[in-house]
Amino acid sequence: MTMWHDSGNQFGPRSKWIEPGRTVEHVDTKRRIKNLLDVSGLTAQLKVIAPRAASRVELLRVHTAAYLDRIDQADKQGGSNIADKGTTFVGDGGYDIACLGAGCTLTAVDAVLSGDVANAYALMRPPGHHAEAERGIGFCIFNNGAIAAAYALEHHGLARVAIVDIDAHHGNGAQAIFWSDPRVLAISIHQDHGLPFSVGETSDQGEGSGLGYNINIPLPAGSSQAAYLETITRVVAPALEAFKPDLIIVPCGLDAGFMDPTARMMLSSDSFRALTAALMACADERCGGKIVFSHEGGYQIHTLPFHALAVFETLSGIRTEVEDPFLAASAYACNAPTQPHERAAIDQAEAAMLAHPPNASGVK
Ligand SMILES: [Zn+2]
Fold first, then answer.
1. Dihedral sign, CA of 219, 223, 227, 229?
2. 2-355 is a CATH 3.40.50.1000 domain
3. For strand 89-91 and strand 79-81, is the pairing parallel, antiparallel, or unpaired?
4. Where are the chain's structural domains?
5. Closest CA to 47 of 145, 146, 115, 128
6. Which uninterrupted H or E stretch holds 73?
7. How far is it, in rounded angstroms, from Cα 184 to Cα 146?
8. DSSP letters spanning 102-150
9. pLDDT tens, 237-250?
10. Angstrom distance (rounded) from CA 222 to CA 230
11. Which tens digits make up the pLDDT trace of 328-356?
């Protein structure tokens, strides 16, 4: 049902000069992922879990009542764009669908924390990681990952949850929502000065008791697999080692893929495979392997399904017979070593993290 989310027929800034047409956050990207999972034979080997909808109480842990009412009103009016700028369309019936989307990630958290499954991937729409407490941004209505983190803390009684956002765009929503909260370590690896609304500097580290619990790693456009893996080794893994999370939630945007129209990063299916394995290793070492992936961006309809399949295969430990037909073409760019300017960016993020390490006690 979440695939029925209506994302409207406008894209970008409001302008009468843009001919209406399909926006990039469209059902086809997600449907094509599901289709490849099915024809590869992988779906039949996975445990498919029916989601429930997130309740108003669960949404209110992250969003304001006024914002929820605004979404409900947009729905009842037959649909409208709720974004201050850009496109975040709430269609007719969109409130309930967004609740179900957020509930997908909650269902995944339940399944992992109960031990029903080893890990989980919530494949749904609309995405969530740009949504803040009282505004929707960049196709995102409810912040699915942040709602799940708050749920894990409040409902399941966890002490600490880490969010490791690998979407090519900044995870501004979790940053804003947990800015002063040392119970959630919000990490974002994203394209430096990328689209659309905020840059996510290394100097954005939280404040008050939350200082050090927000880590941004803005990588230069063109960063490839080696830079991402070095970022995990030098910044993400040490931060998680200090923080000692009980659960890791990964807002999993695949728009760092090498052909994505909304970003300029250089990851292949093998890169996403390696990145997922590295994050799973962090979870194995720090929290008994408890990790939940929650789907975010990713818009290139031809390459995206292969990038998603690589993540699913790695999480499940099942390698299908599917071979990524784009892998050879992407190898030269995606397998480049870390470049000097990329290493400088990682150096800066590492120094910022070490200046204010996110220790588990919450005491500085
Ligand atoms: Zn994105």
1. positive
2. no
3. antiparallel
4. 2-355
5. 115
6. helix 65-76
7. 9
8. HHHHHHHHHHHHTTSSS-EEE--SS--TT-BTTB-BTTBSS-HHHHHHH
9. 999 999 999 999 99
10. 15
11. 999 999 999 999 999 999 999 999 999 99
Can you tell me which residue has the tokens 């495979």? 273
26 has catalytic annotation: no
Q: Which of 5, 130, 295, 307 is catalytic?
A: 130
For residue 286 the two structure tokens come to 């720090």
Q: Is the pTM of this model over 0.85?
A: yes
The alpha carbon of 256 and the centre of ligand 1 are apart by a number of angstroms equal to 8
Residues that place a CB less than 5 A from ion ligand 1: 167, 169, 253, 255, 297
Cα(44)–Cα(134) distance, integer angstroms:
39
Which tokens belong to 9?
Answer: 């027929």
From ligand 1's centre to the CA of 284, what distance in Å? 26
How many angstroms does the Cα of residue 4 sit away from the middle of ligand 1? 20
Q: Residue with structure tokens 């924390």?
A: 113
Secondary structure class of 343 (helix, strand, coil)? helix
Contacts 24+ apart (CB under 8 A), 154-157: 154/61, 155/58, 156/109, 156/113
171 Cα: distance to centroid of ligand 1 (angstroms): 9
189: left (phi over 0), alpha (psi -120 to 50) or beta: beta
Q: State how far the Cα of 170 lies from the Cα of 204, in Å rounded to an integer.
A: 12
Cα–Cα distance for residue pair 243/238, rounded to 1 Å: 9
Instruction: For residue 296, report the distance from its CA to the centre of ligand 1, in Å.
Output: 7
Q: pLDDT tens-digit profile of 258-280?
A: 999 999 999 999 999 999 999 99
Percent pLDDT > 90 in the chain is 84
- Ligand 1 centroid, distance to 129 Cα (angstroms): 8
> Which burial class, exposed, middle or buried, applies to 321 when counting CB atoms under 10 A from its CB (0-12, 13-18, 19+)?
exposed
